[in-house]
Design a protein that fits this description.
The chain has about 160 residues and is an all-alpha fold. The chain contains 6 helices and no strands. Helix 1 (about 10-30) packs antiparallel against helix 2 and helix 5 runs antiparallel to helix 6 (about 130-155). The longest helix is centred in the C-terminal third of the chain and has 25 residues, at about 95-120.
């Protein structure tokens, strides 16, 4: 049986429990399913995090890929921080400036993604072939999107 009712409090369990708890609690706070009732949200998050982390297949897969998942969150928090610092988050800022900022952020994300694919030693991607072909395709899409955003901001 892969489910353990009372797991030992190892560093693996505590780390996964806190990570899953933070994700679930943050999602409940953002979605506001139960209003602003933090106590109910925390109880639900605690229960779901406990059951998720005591299920060994989930815990093993999460622990094996935790470094990649954490890098994803670091990059997404960086993107959100830059958006808020520049004033894009609340609908402020110039549309043309926003297009350039989004293009820069997308370039950083594409570069990090291609680097991660290289680190994972993935040499063949369905439909694109190699990682270089995927990078070329994403770069062309980025340039087309940038031109479209600038064209749209000029009232075209």
């Amino acid at each position: 049986m892969a489910y353990v009712l009372l797991p030992e409090l190892s560093d693996k369990f505590v780390m996964l429990f806190l990570f899953v708890l933070a994700i679930i609690f943050g999602s409940l706070r953002y979605a506001r399913i139960f209003g602003n009732n933090s106590a109910v949200q925390m109880i639900i998050a605690l229960a779901l995090a406990y059951f998720a982390c005591t299920y060994e297949p989930f815990a093993n897969v999460l622990y094996a890929n935790l470094s990649l998942i954490l890098w994803f969150f670091v990059i997404m928090f960086f993107v959100i921080f830059v958006r808020e610092a520049v004033g894009i988050g609340k609908g402020g800022g110039d549309h043309k400036t926003n297009a350039y900022i989004y293009a820069g952020l997308m370039l950083v994300l594409i570069t990090v993604g291609i680097r991660i694919l290289g680190l994972l030693d993935i040499s063949s991607i369905p439909f694109f072939g190699s990682v270089e072909n995927l990078a070329l395709f994403l770069g062309v899409l980025l340039i087309i999107g940038l031109f479209y955003a600038v064209h749209k901001s000029e009232g075209g």
